[in-house]
Amino acid sequence: MRARDLVAQIPTIAVDAPVVEAAHLMVERDLPGLIVLDERGRPFTILPGTQVLRLAVPHYCQDDPALARVIDEAHADEFLRTLGGLTVRRALPDRPRELPVTDPDATVLEVAALMARTRSPLVAVVDAGRLLGAVTLNALMSRLVGA
After folding, report:
1. Cα separation of 91 and 52, whole Å?
2. What pLDDT is recorded for position 106?
3. CA 141 to CA 112: how far, in whole Å?
4. Which of 82, 84, 89, 111 is the one with CA 20 to 30 A from 104?
5. CATH at 86
6. Is pTM beyond 0.85 here?
């Protein structure tokens, strides 16, 4: 089995789009992340949902889970609203990571190794500079578990 056999069409998002839009796409499509496109429409990086959470959840709550416990739900909901005017670019890690991109002929093991190495829930599949879609963590694990 090759990457082309596992590829799925998933929505993409522009690097300067609102991060709230990215969060909505992930929720609506039940995706672990999105492929972020640069200004030329080419894969730039992967935005995992966990990175959106890192931006929304105050650092003091990430650093000390006991502080997160004392904040009531009404105030916790406010943290997500703070994403309002922020862009996807702002949600990306400070240091760029290896871009999880492969070609359609990559084997399942190659895709799994790339996904594990980059800690990305998605691997973009590109053929001759054209984005075909992505292999999701769920599709890959389903294939591995079913094998």
Report:
1. 6
2. 96
3. 9
4. 89
5. 3.10.580.10
6. no
